[in-house]
Write a structure and sequence with these properties.
Helices cover 36% and strands 25% of the residues. It is α/β, with parallel strands linked by helices.
């Protein structure tokens, strides 16, 4: 069974700096590079590199990096026949600043991603019967996200929602269509209305998210770890200790590892560990998609830590 990602495709324009600037400040930076990105594309590549058949449904522009983005997805092993080309606008662009400690600031210009609509949902419906998991994010229009979630829910396909970039208009209906929601601590705090900074507050946030209608809530706490809660169980997974270089796609890598674990019928706890491992590996390299681990690197990482051994 495959994993389908319904979401955004961007080009990332990345600048490094000693730290993140404050408002009105000009900093002398270090490096500049561009790399394929977009939360949808990142998560599709994250799953595909772990050896799971992966489809991406979305849009790029006819100019401004469109062909380059499609080519990079295909090289990563992602099926792109359901990526359409929007003739009238540019591809999505993310402008990213990365500090020396790996922290980042991101501005996203949607471009073609803002045109995703029911035509894309119709293409999704054609391949949904082959899928085990549908991954969603919030970088395409909300109406299309809800329609995609509803289609997957009706077919019994697990729906994972990464509520990023977080929005104030997440409809109540969407929560009830979601099997697993995966906010980071900032996103979780904005959704539930109180600060989420540690294991205890993450536990409370998962309870609030369950009350909204999701079946499982996973709060990513960065270097602190991950808290997971359902109606039947809750647990905390400490973060893997690594030297972070760039955390830009760590959350996308987490979702990729989580979805890959679900595709391989692992337990929920094992899937969360897979997500945490993939996120840790991604934080060790610069860039979004260039940082995402392949299956050989991923398996070696787990074996070194004696995870998954009998």
């Amino acid at each position: 069974m495959s994993v389908i990602v319904f979401g955004s495709i961007n080009i990332d324009l990345v600048a490094t700096a000693p730290r993140l600037p404050v408002a009105g400040e000009t900093l002398l930076g270090g490096e500049f590079f561009k790399a394929p990105g977009g939360k949808g594309a990142n998560q599709a590549v994250a799953v595909a590199r772990l050896g799971i058949p992966t489809h991406l449904v979305g849009r790029v522009g006819a100019h401004s990096f469109g062909n380059e983005l499609i080519d990079s997805l295909q090289v990563a092993g992602v099926r792109t026949e359901n990526v359409s080309i929007e003739a009238t606008v540019s591809s999505g662009v993310a402008v990213i600043i990365v500090g020396d400690g790996g922290e980042n600031q991101i501005i996203v210009i949607p471009g073609a991603n803002g045109y995703v609509d029911n035509e894309d949902v119709a293409r999704l419906l054609q391949i949904l019967p082959t899928a085990k998991v549908l991954l969603l994010q919030l970088e395409v229009p909300m109406s299309a996200i809800v329609a995609a979630a509803k289609a997957a829910h009706n077919l019994g396909v697990k729906v994972i929602l990464d509520p990023a970039p977080v929005q104030s208009n997440i409809p109540d209906e969407l929560y009830h269509l979601v099997d697993i929601i995966t906010p980071n601590e900032v996103e979780a705090g904005q959704i539930v209305g109180f600060p989420v900074v540690d294991e205890d507050s993450a536990a409370q946030a998962t309870k609030t998210l369950l009350e909204k209608g999701v079946k499982c809530a996973i709060v990513k706490l960065g270097s602190k770890g991950v808290y997971c809660g359902t109606q039947d169980e809750s647990f905390f997974i400490p973060a893997f200790t690594v030297q972070a270089v760039d955390t830009t796609a760590a959350g996308d890598a987490f979702n990729g590892g989580l979805a890959a674990g679900l595709a391989e019928d692992l337990s929920l706890r094992e899937c969360v560990v897979w997500g945490a491992a993939a996120g840790a590996l991604a934080a060790m390299k610069q860039g979004a998609q260039p940082s995402l681990p392949d299956r050989f690197m991923f398996d070696a990482f787990l074996q070194e830590r004696e995870i998954g051994k009998n």
